[in-house]
Amino acid sequence: MGQSRQDNHLEGAAPIAVVLPGDDLTSRILSPDAKNRPPKLGTGLYYDASARTVTAMVAGRLYHRPETSTYMVLNNTRRYVPRVGDRVLGIVEETAGEYYRLNIHGPHPALLHNLSFEGATKRNRPYLAPGALLYCRVISSDREMDPEVSCKVAGDGIADGGARRRDWMTDEGTYGELKGGTCTRVSLGLARELLLPGNVVLDALGKQGLSFEVAIGVNGIVWVHSEKPEYTVLIGNAIKNSEVMTPAQVRGMVAKLVKAQRSEMLGA
Q1: pLDDT of residue 236
Q2: Which of the four pLDDT bands, split at 50, 70 and 90, describes residue 266?
Q3: What's the maximum distance between 2 C-alpha atoms anywhere in the chain?
Q4: What is the pLDDT of residue 99?
Q5: What phi and psi, each to the nearest 5 degrees, are found at residue 264?
Q6: Are 28 and 38 in contact (CB under 8 A)?
Q7: DSSP string, the chain
Q8: Which of the listed residues 19, 92, 179, 180 has the most CB atoms within 10 Å of its CB?
Q9: What pLDDT does 12 receive?
């Protein structure tokens, strides 16, 4: 079964409706017995405290996360804008003093301190070459400054989606360098969909008996690694194809791809 390093912002979230900018969502989000407590809102929503109304700011799908009673609108924006807590994939571009400069496909490159790894010291730390791919989280984001990322787990890990804290040398931690495999870019909307529990395409791939790892960044970069290069390519293609298909079509597409690939490998 495939294993995934996932963002925790969408865990347990369920879609409610498709919304447009300006839609009044007060009746959907604010309960009559909420009194004057402000609702817990994520991206794409605006709360007017004086009028006690909730309005959609962007077009997309309204999601609700029951565990935290949080609402958010997910939309397929063209450019990734970093926010604190995001889990992203970044590519090392260069070294700048004590920092690595990473391309996270945002408005500006991200900075990663060379000691921002679990167990790293000045004498014992990773040395990353340009082109290295990293799975990390955003720890600061400001319009006037480059965002900063880290490969360290936040707090005890519970608030960080159950992230595992392991020394960087073990290659067993949640964050760090991703070796082998291949990465591809997808739309931000598809990246968010892939992070939802029970995502159709990832579930279908796992049920086909494929053993793989996948790391998904909310910045639209997906890394895939499997036992065979042919399966890695297949998984990447299946993920991209799934964006414009219904769940039934996705399952059928995955089954056909796997069957064709296995037949080709047997006949080789």
Answers
A1: 95
A2: confident
A3: 69
A4: 95
A5: -65, -40
A6: no
A7: --EEE--STTTT-EEEEEE-TT-B-HHHH--GGGTTPPPEE-TTEEEETTTTEEEE-SSEEEEEETTTTEEEEE---SS----TT-EEEEEEEEEETTEEEEE-SSSS-EEEEEEEETT--SSS---PPTT-EEEEEEEEEETTEEEEEEES--TTSTTTTT-----GGGT-SSSEE--SSEEEE--HHHHHHHTSTT-HHHHHHHHTT--EEEEE-TTSEEEEEESSHHHHHHHHHHHHHGGGS-HHHHHHHHHHHHHHHHHHHHH-
A8: 19
A9: 52
Q: Which residue has the tokens 């495939």?
A: 2
Mean pLDDT lowest among 2-6, 156-160, 227-231: 2-6
> Which residue's structure tokens are 């997808």?
186
Q: pLDDT per residue over 168-221, tens digit each?
A: 888 888 999 999 999 999 988 889 889 888 899 999 999 999 999 999 999 999
pLDDT at position 34: 58
Asked if 133 and 183 count as a contact pair (C-beta separation under 8 A), the reply is yes
Q: What residue type is assigned to position 73 of the chain? A: V
Beta partners for 4? 214
Cα angle: 202, vertex 74, 80; to 5 degrees: 90
Q: What is the CA radius of gyration of the chain?
A: 20
Closest Cα partner for 108 from 137, 130, 89, 81? Answer: 81
Q: Please, what is the average pLDDT of the chain? A: 86
Q: How many residues does the chain have?
A: 268
